[in-house]
Write a structure and sequence with these properties.
Methane Monooxygenase Hydroxylase, Chain G, domain 1, mainly alpha, 228 residues
């Protein structure tokens, strides 16, 4: 029969997997609402953020109980990393809610005539999130490590988008409100990639007991195009 500690540890792991699934879903739906200017979908994304908030609290509460049981080193790493990963997932939910808020605002504004394509940034941020969660599920440190250099390319893509939007606002002041909303969405996507990178670093620590957060980063691939 499974001992209580192992059962509680499995339940903690299941809570994390649920959070991961909900975070991915929130990002997907927020971006869909942004692309289609669907205010109703954006509202549902915003309202669903409270579920991730609640799950983060549950993970922390369960982790504290497990820490009091003096687990073995490998289990201790899982418990402590669970708290860190849940925090990053909750913050990804927050970023999705911000995107949804921007989608609601833009739903009532005319389209902006500017050749800035957020799709490459969105696809990469979502891919990084999925990869980091897959690495956690499979306890795959190599996959987690391979994700980390991609964050630099996301940063470069975000910078290029920001510069293009700023230049457009300087030439077309009437478009400033809409451009600021798009700029916020781009920043949210960059932050989602940051949180995915944090999760990947936590996975490496979970698997290898090696803290790589402040180690030199490998060279990144070139940034994606920002024009359509």
């Amino acid at each position: 029969m499974e001992i209580p500690f192992e059962r509680e540890l499995n339940e903690l792991n299941e809570r994390l997997l649920t959070m991961g699934s909900l975070a991915e879903q929130a990002v997907h739906r927020a971006l869909q609402a942004f692309r289609t200017r669907d205010a109703d979908l954006a509202t549902r994304v915003r309202d669903a953020d409270s579920v991730l908030d609640r799950l983060e609290v549950e993970v922390d509460e369960r982790a504290i109980v497990l820490l009091a049981k003096a687990p073995l080193a490998r289990d201790l790493r899982l418990v402590t990393m669970a708290m860190k990963i849940s925090q990053n997932l909750e913050r990804i939910g927050d970023e999705a809610a911000k995107i949804a808020k921007r989608a609601r605002a833009l739903a009532h504004e005319p389209p902006v005539r500017i050749e800035v394509d957020l799709d490459p940034l969105a696809l990469e941020a979502r891919s990084m999130l999925k990869t980091s969660l897959d690495a956690f599920v499979q306890r795959d440190a190599d996959t987690a490590r391979s994700l980390i250099p991609r964050d630099q390319a996301v940063d470069a893509t975000h910078k290029a988008i920001r510069e293009k939007l700023i230049a457009h606002m300087q030439q077309h002041p009437e478009a400033i409100p809409q451009c600021l909303e798009i700029l916020t969405v781009a920043k949210c996507l960059e932050r989602i990639a940051d949180h995915a990178t944090n999760i990947a670093e936590d996975v490496v620590y979970l698997c290898e007991a090696t803290d790589i957060r402040h180690m030199p980063k490998p060279a990144a691939p070139p940034p994606s195009s920002v024009t359509s």
